[in-house]
Every structure is written in structure tokens, then in C-alpha cells.
Amino acid sequence: MITRTAPSWHTEDWQILLSGSIRCPEALWKRLELPLDSLPAGLKGHQAFPLRVPEPYLDKILPGRLDDPLLRQVIPVAAETDQVAGYVADPLGELGSNPQSGLLHKYHSRVLLVLSGACAINCRYCFRRHFPYEDNRLSTAEFAQVETYLREHPEVNEVILSGGDPLVVSNARLANLLNIIEKVPTVRRLRIHTRVPVVIPQRIDAGLLEILGNTRLDTVLVTHSNHPRELDSVFDAAMGALRQAGVHLLNQAVLLRGVNDDGQVLVALSERLFHSGILPYYLHLLDPVAGAHHFDVPEAEARALMAHLHRYLPGFLIPRLVREISGKPGKTLIDLHLS
Questions:
Q1: pTM for the whole thing?
Q2: What does the alpha-carbon distance between residue 212 and residue 208 come to, in Å, rounded to a whole number?
């Protein structure tokens, strides 16, 4: 019988939880009572892309289960070092849309700012696992250059914060950037893509709520949750606080082999998100990034899963199945061929 131990952490300080993340494969194997014969493969994958798991997320993983869908998203495996045709370091061609440090301009009306190269958790399927963050560190001194770029491109009406993860930075740094963006009258929306509230919901603190609640920008926060078991009552409270601050909430999931490639799981995810006040937005096919081929779900199988969602969910709870293709003007919607 699988049992859970009481949490080893007792703090609401998100920065302590962030700094205290598990980064050692041996420690992860010990904590989760994983079979030791699987550790060498984990060490090999860890060398390719370092392990990082915060305590609040670790507590949701079932011990002793290598097939746990939450564990599969964070555990390094030897397959990550395989060389597979078609899986590359820059699957979305982002380095060709990088006019200045920390800024990507791929789509006509939106720019993306890389506010940090760090994440609260290292997801094994991350499409930016090879991104050259060392060349794209958007320093506070460079915030003024962002303002100049936005003024020179009045077609841009939305700024997207991504990374890395933008919510690993301090509230002061985030407020500083927003104050500069707000000076540009053509920018109307702020969109934040983040997995931090899923893995450390304590990050949604009073300071962040004050910043997002007082901006003139229409603010959208896109959570990145892939499985219903990632969401709990602490997450629900954080999302409720964001809604009260006037933030619109969406979710973007990735279709992952062994994690959510199951119709019932995807239905449960949409229902659980709505319980938290979040609308499903996108279900992404895997970006072909080197090191993540073992997560791929073929497009035909993805269509069948979407048909299952259409049978069991109302339209507003069905995410759009998409693929991102380098050079396209936006996400590519997958034709479902529903009869």
C-alpha cells in the first residue's frame, strides 16, 4: 500500500520554497522511494538537463511509482540523450526572431519578453531547454530598450512575459518592468505564461496581487497544467485571489505520452481547471525539441482524444488542439475531422 508522508516543509514563503527545490537525483529517488536500478538512467538525463522539483509539487507525486504522471514530467531519463531525427535545439526557430536581448517578436501584434532564464521546475518536455538564456538576460538596465522597441513598433498591442518563468523574479523587478510597459500607449494587454502557480501556488502573494490588480493593462495569466492531480485547494485559493484582482485566467497544456494521453484524464483536467476558475485555452502537440521525443503523441491519436473531449465536455471547456510551426504567423489549429 502506497502512503504519503507529511510535508517536510512548513512555510508560505515562495522564495524559500523556490530555493529549497530538490536538485539532486539521489535525493529525489530517496524521497520518492524509487527503484535504485533506475537511478543510473536518471543521472544520465540529469547531466543533459538538470533536475529541479519544488517541495509543494513533490508532495503531489505518489511514492514508489515510476509511472506516476506527475513524476514523468520532472524525472530525468536516459532517453533524453538520444539523437532523434527531427528533434532539434530550436524547434520553433525563435533565434531568428530575437531582435534584441531578451525580446522575441515572432507575431505581428505581440512581443515576448524573457524576464528570467530560471524556472521553478524543470519540465522534461520544455521546448526552451536548449535556449541560450545567457545571451538573453533582460537586465533592469535594458528595460528602457524594451520601451524604445515598443514605441518603434506601434502594431504591438500585447506584451507576453515568459522565460524561463517570469514569476520566479521578485515583485519589485516585475513592477519595475510593468511601469515601463504602461508608458507605451499602444500596448493594451499583458499576458503572463507561467507554471509557478501550479508548482508553488504560494507565489501568488499580496505583493503580486497588488501589482496585477493596479495595472492599467488588461491582464491574462496562462497557467501551465497538464494533469488534474497537479491542482489542489491551495492552488484554488491562489486563482480565486487572482480573479478578485481582475486577472483573466487561461490554461495551456501539452499533450504528453504517459502523462495525459488519455481521454478521461483530459476531461478531468478541463473540469478541474474550471473548478479553479480557469478556462482551457490550448492543448499543444509536443514541440520537437531535442531530448523530449519520448513524450510525443501522434497527431492522429491526438485527434481521437479531442473527439472524446467533444463527446463529454461543453464547448467552452474544450481546449484548441494546436501545433506551433516555425515561421507561421500564429499557432496552427489541427483539423479534427469531426463528423
A1: 0.94
A2: 6
